Amino acid sequence: MSATNHHGQTRAWRVEDGVLVGGQEREGVGGVLLTNRRYGDVEVALDVWPDFGCDSGLFLRSSEDGAAYQVMIDYLDGGNVGGVFGEGLVELDAKPNLEWVKAWHPGEWNHLRARIEGNVPHITVWINGTMITDWTDTANHAAGEAVNGAIGLQVHGGSRWLRGGRIRFRNLTVHELR
User: For the domain that residue 76 is a member of, what is the CATH number?
Assistant: First the structure.
């Protein structure tokens, strides 16, 4: 877990029947769960089931403090799933195409697959087999222009989280591309 990110250091991560479940430890205190290993060009696939009203994300090439290319799992009013945001990076906000709404199955498991490749990152995102984002950055905006970093799962801090809400992850796989 990141001990230095601005979302908090929630200890509310747990495993229930083989499913990783995240939530705010107490209202407003989120956090980012990071891998110990750093990855460069990688494809991450997982099943995700957030409660409506929860703001989360899949972090790619994350620094210890949670600065990363974030694949959005902002499942709340005005949010999106599958767009790319620069968490703690320069202003990056690539919206997914509207197919994400058609591909997403509310109230059940959804399969999310994200790929990041290249020194200037090219990120592709699929939801339930439908490509919804195909985006290339204009330069490497990762912290320190890193070409690798941790993979992270986020529970947003602050008020962008349903009180008592949970996000669930299962079947996480990581495939290095090089």
Answer: 2.60.120.560
